[in-house]
Design a protein that fits this description.
- The chain is built from 4 helices and 4 strands.
- It is an alpha+beta fold.
- It has one domain.
- This is Transposase IS701-like DDE domain-containing protein.
Length: 118
């Protein structure tokens, strides 16, 4: 059973606003992450964590991406730089990096890009 939530309505609005027709049977929402190695300790979201691109735990930054795919077409709906819990719990670090207070709330990777406008 599929429950149509406020998030579903928001996604449908974003998708149809870009000229796509949505049907449950033909389209799929995809949320994925991409880790990138980072050497600069002052990069926002920088943390020692597992990075699939490197195949090991190392210093990296993660982006989280939401897309809609239907047949051979793909549409990027949203993206966000992921902030690990270690960053969110250190408000001085977030303030120094210029992260707005309203973004200093921890969200897991699957939720990180859902409510962030492009």
């Amino acid at each position: 059973m599929h429950f149509y939530t406020a998030i579903d309505r928001e996604l449908t609005t974003r998708i149809t606003a870009r000229g796509w027709r949505t049907t449950v049977k033909k389209g799929v929402q995809v949320i994925d992450e991409c880790g990138n190695p980072k050497a600069a300790k002052h990069s926002i979201g920088f943390n020692r964590q597992y990075c699939g691109n490197m195949g090991k735990v190392d210093n990296c930054q993660f982006g989280v991406f939401m897309a809609y795919t239907k047949s051979e077409r793909r549409l990027l709906l949203n993206y966000r730089l992921y902030l690990p819990a270690e960053w969110i719990t250190d408000s001085a670090r977030c303030d120094a990096a210029g992260i707005l207070k309203e973004h200093q709330i921890f969200k897991n990777k699957s939720r990180a890009c859902i409510r962030n406008d492009l």
